[in-house]
Amino acid sequence: MNYYISPRRTYLTRRWNGETADSAEFTLPVDVREEEAAYIISALVPGMKADDIRLQIDDNVLTIQGVRPEDEAPYLLRELPYGTFRRSLRLPVEVDGDAAEATVADGLLTLRIPKAETALPKTIKVISK
What we know:
By secondary structure, the chain is mainly beta. It has one helix at 8-16; strands at residues 25-26, 30-34, 38-44, 53-58, 61-68, 83-90, 101-105, 108-114. The chain has a single domain (23-116), classed as Immunoglobulin-like. β4 (53-58) and β5 (61-68) form a beta hairpin. The model is unreliable at 1-23 (pLDDT under 50).
């Protein structure tokens, strides 16, 4: 059985996305979940270590950036992204950036960013007279 792999598909995909053949920047896909007291953000970062990723929270905008180095080995088909990436997300409420936690395990970056005390719902006790 023979398998034929055409490099043309990858070239066309890059061209449709507005990238040139020399472009090595990609968009980092993320999942964002809201819990009662925090936001949970997950991103796939295959083959990357914690030192390769830079996180910043400024004025409720989370920025994730880094570099996935290009491997010089010859490929028959190459679909995994490489190069630099930068993704900014505006969070809808005030967050406590000082209490944020981030981990990288098995190619998955997971951030837990707690909401600020001012953004949490307040319970008001009603007193009868």
